[in-house]
Amino acid sequence: MGNIDNLLKKLNKSDIRLPDRLYENISEGVRRMHEQRNKRAEWFYRRRPAFKYALTFIVLFFIGIYIFSSTRISMEIVSRKGTAAIIARKNKPDKTEKKISIGSYLVTEKGSDIKIRLGEKLSFKLMDDNILQITKMKKFAGYEGYGIHVEKGRQTYVITKGANLNLSTEHIRLQNLGTIFELVSDERGTYIKVLKGKVSLRRNIKNIPKIKTLRFSNDSDRDQLETIFQKKNIIKMGESVYVRKDTNNKIDRMIQKIVQEKRSVANRDLSALKREFYIEKKAGASALWKYDTGSPIWVSPAVLGGEILIGTESGNIVSLSKKGKLNWEIKTGSAFFNNGSIHEKRFYIVDSKGALYCVDTDGARVIWKKQVGEVMYSRPLRTYGSLFVATASGEIKALQPDTGKVIWQKKLWNGIFCEPITERGKIYFGSEDGTVFCINYFNAAIEWKKKTDGRIAVSSPSIYQKALYFGNNKGFIHALDLSKGSLLWRKKLSGKILSRPLIQNDSLFVATSAGTVYSMTLNGKIKWKLDLNENIETSFEIAGNEIIIPGKKGNVYIIDKARGAIKRIINIEEEIISKPVVESGFLYIATMKGNVYKYSIREDSRIAGPVK
Amino acid sequence: MFEDKNDAQLVQITLTDEDLYEQAFKEIYNRYYKRIFKMIHNSVDNIDDCMDLLQQTFLNVFKYLNRYNSKYQFTTWIYKITTNNILNYKRHKVRSFRFLKELKSVTTGTYYPDYADMIYKEDALNDLNRSLRKLPEKFGMPLLLSAIGELKTKEIAGILKITQSGVRKRIMKAKEMLKKDLKIPDNDR
Q1: Within a 13 Å sphere around the CA of A579, how many CA atoms are in the beta-carbon half?
Q2: Domain with B181 in it
Q3: How confident is the model over B116-127, as a mean pLDDT?
């Protein structure tokens, strides 16, 4: 061993010879390394401020992340009775964050704050069981407002700030800011229950300025309709359904679809379904225009080519243009209670004191004026080249229309209040004591007269084929033989008959003061009847397939002639005495508040409202 | 110039002084290159690789000089780098170094032919050198560190990451193996 140690010592102490270029290589390497190091140091030194800022930013960023993550409450979706449930864990950040699916349950303690990452960050406050209030959220790309979105299939919902959500229900609906709502889901579908504020569609808010309410009489049908309406972007809230304006014209098509679906379940037709809803509007909202004359109007407007002539209680004869602007006005000083008639640019109207005016429709001047009786309540009738008037004292007169000269006159002693009608040279009218007269117009001879029990007040007679139909105050509807005046049949209806019965297509329509509308055959059999819950004291009109009946309270009912179903109610909320007038698809109504309304009753407008 | 400075001061000058760093590093080289070369030469066969390893060791020393902690012995640190380089070479057979390749003009053939068998003047030392190369690194490295590096057992244990008794045992074993290889008779008997 000693030798080994000695050898090793010798090895340690022995001098060795190494080439000089060894260190040259090393020093070359060292110099290069030093230069590189200096270059690098210089580069970093020059960029020192930038690095400082970057470092500060990074530090602050991580501090921010730390602060945020320390207050974050994460969500976890777990399985709970077959449905996904979200459990909020306070102050326990969980890395396994998942998307909240629709239909998931949110289970938290009441009053706790919850933050959900759902594409975007937002925080909730739990108000009540299953009701959340959104307190904070970030701007969501792609939408105008702030919100998160939940997607289910094609549908996208946006939840906005201030909204309350019920995550236990199926759908999360669109919501305005500051509105609190609750989604209620049952077998009928999902509804929004508004707790505070208003609900409207989040998307295309600008496109739904007018909202209509559909009401349904039948619960089961309504429910089926609603479910289909919901699919078609029609919102249902409580008892009402809101229809977006652009979908209005498609409702009929939708209903047809519904009918096709319903036919498989119950064999019902379109007409039966249509009867079951109507559209309610705000008072006067759907009018094309409205003109205020300033005094009550008892007279139904006389319309010719869209232009209107009307007499008011204050004694003015007013002419209105097609667009509801005043053409001209004549002040007479006496009240007008009777309807006027237009013939060949002449307007004939009788005032309450019995003076007959002939007015030029163009020139705003009275052509002639003649006192024809003491008091008059009937309308002057321009027929057969002359003018026929009947007074309340029982006089009938035929006048020359150009000058007002009397051609013939006759005293009957029976007060005449109704509007007479003419047919084949004969004039028919009822009198106060119930007698019906048929008078030959050319020789003023009484053809026949028929005494009936009951006063015939305002109800004018109607002629159809070979019969005369009229109603009286006792509620009887009569049918008389036109040639002889003999009674064909009569039938008692509920209430007084103050309106003129109308006949069209072998159907007789009668409205009584009790508010019932009857459709009868010409033999007196009732086809259908409809209760309107409103007194009917004025005559009504038939326009196309619809009957237009004004009620006393101010609702104008548009009724399907064939089925007796209400199609539409025009709500005016003003007392209507005068008869409505229909001309070329437009309805003209004058009210006791002095307003004249024009409505459209076209086929396509009966649901959609005014056509503009 | 730097004779009166100790190792830590030399390192300080090398790191900080822009003008004198080369001279200070040359002083470090002069102090250690013989012993480091002996350690390398007694573990690695090829003389070219020995030269490369020596250069690489000193370049590494310069590269990582800022990592040297002056609390500890510089010798320990420089021998640790040497040991690591040798072991790295032996384990992975890294025969050429990218950095050195750039410096060399000739990369093939024997670069230092004159020095192949002329390192030691005495034949006995050449025999010892041959026997040392045959030793497994497990036993050779502690022996070299203690004999040539003149390190204490504790320092060797720190470098090789083994216990002090293990160092002692391995040195004993290495000496026995050398004795057997060199056929040196036991004096005690």
Answers
A1: 24
A2: 106-189
A3: 76
